[in-house]
Amino acid sequence: MSAITLDIAEKRYPARTGTPAREIFRDFRLDVAAGEFLVLLGSSGLGKTTLLNIAAGLDDTYRGAVRFGTANPRIAYAFQNPRLLPWRTVLENVALPLGEGMAARTSARRMLEEVGLAELASAYPERLSLGQQRRAALARAFAIEPDVLLMDEPFVSLDQPAAERLRELLRRLLARRPASVMFVTHDPREAVALASRIVLLEGSPATVARDVKVTLGLRERASPALADAFLIRMGIIPRTEPATPRG
Amino acid sequence: MSTASRLGMTAASLLALLLVWQGAALWAASPLLPSPAAVLAAMQRAAEGGALQRNIAITLARVAAAFFIAMAIGSALGIALGRSPRLNELFGPWVIVLLNLPALVVIILCYVWFGLTEAAAITAVSINKIPNVAVTMREGAAALSRDLDEMARVYRFGRWRTLRHVTLPQLVPFFTASARSGLALTWKIVLVVELLGRSNGVGFELQTAFQMFDVATVLAYALAFTVVVQIIEMGLLQPWERWANGWRR
Ligand SMILES: Nc1ncnc2c1ncn2[C@@H]1O[C@H](COP(=O)(O)OP(=O)(O)OP(=O)(O)O)[C@@H](O)[C@H]1O
Ligand SMILES: [Mg+2]
């Protein structure tokens, strides 16, 4: 049984001053299997964030339904910006989704150790680097032991080594606490590095253009050349131009 | 600039003011412009019988009562208007009308309608201040971060945790701003209210002194009261502001 079923008959944004009405999805369906790491690829403005927001229950202005495999699943969402509370310490930020007692703080502290932020537990988020804030956001997401993990370009605007370290951390966290993941990125290589399945969206309204299982080993995932070869073979990137590496 | 040198500059500036005052008093040589020493003497005279302290305490109590009432009602009103465009359309214009009503008119109306009572006095001061607070808080409530609100919803903070950890901290700067301007406004209006319809407090004493052309006593009360207000500013408001802003870089 699927962990997440997105069934969107229609999602549109009404016209506003300056923007015409836009239909983002029509008769769109996507199933995410339990434990799957689904990466959503697609160009800017296609509706990827919209899709995650619908899955998260943040957007209910659409026709259709979202169903989950387990009743009342715990959902964690790593946003494109870390969205930490600037007036609460890193520890409090990670603890707050768990409640306000001592138990929450204890497990938050353990979580921070796991992501390598133990020393910064009592710092305020704005004093952290972007990479560290992203780590804190990951800690917050995993602290609630989510069934469903939604991630919207969570590693964007980091340099490659920092992004790779965070991807490594994400793999490690998921190995310990499996979850069904929907992960949005612009970077096809990042998709290959992480995904068990890649879905490429295209068009307006958006439709699934490619839907491929990824069964590569760690070595192939880590090598840009092999990753590109896979992406070309699967028709995710065109044969002629190499995948653009992202800074 | 370091704190010490800033304090030094402030002291020097105040000293210069004192010298100018002294010079002007010498030049005028009139009881209508008393020297600093004469004002100090008047202050001592007023303080000896305890009148100065008592009147300042009475006025401060009125300031405090009006201030807290106005902050509470004004904040609630402002947040409600900032959160609901519908309410804002309905009642926003009322706030503008109140905002532009001269303080004196409100005071007169309150005394006429509710009599020359303590309640009328405090109501008058509160009503003068409520629209200012409401307008500032409305601005803050309208600018609340959607991003953080979504975060709190996803992570199921619930009403109370959202209010305490997400919403209120965003309103603190607006709250401090209105508290600050509010305190200044309140104590000025309280003096007028006392002058018009109370038989004690700094405002009443100022009026008595005014009727006898006792400028030294007027200045003595004004100075003493200003100092007290400054101490409250620096001793209460500023430390609280620093504490509330501790997270900023
Ligand atoms: N609140 C909104 N009101 C009106 N239009 C919106 C709103 N939010 C998004 N849109 C429009 O819907 C489309 C899809 O937006 P969305 O943010 O889901 O795209 P995306 O695929 O996440 O893009 P990106 O990769 O740049 O983040 C865009 O064209 C955007 O302009
Ligand atoms: Mg997006």
UniProtKB/TrEMBL annotation, chain B:
It comes from the Bacteria. The keyword Lyase does not apply. Keywords: Cell membrane, Membrane, Transmembrane, Transmembrane helix, Transport. It is found in: Cell membrane. Residues 56-238 form the ABC transmembrane type-1 domain. The chain crosses the membrane at residues 57-82, 94-114, 209-232. It is a multi-pass membrane protein. Gene3D superfamilies: MetI-like (1.10.3720.10). The keyword Cell cycle does not apply. CDD domains: TM_PBP2. InterPro entries: MetI-like (IPR000515), MetI-like_sf (IPR035906). Belongs to the binding-protein-dependent transport system permease family. This is ABC transporter permease subunit. It comes from Ancylobacter radicis. The lineage of its organism: Bacteria, Pseudomonadati, Pseudomonadota, Alphaproteobacteria, Hyphomicrobiales.
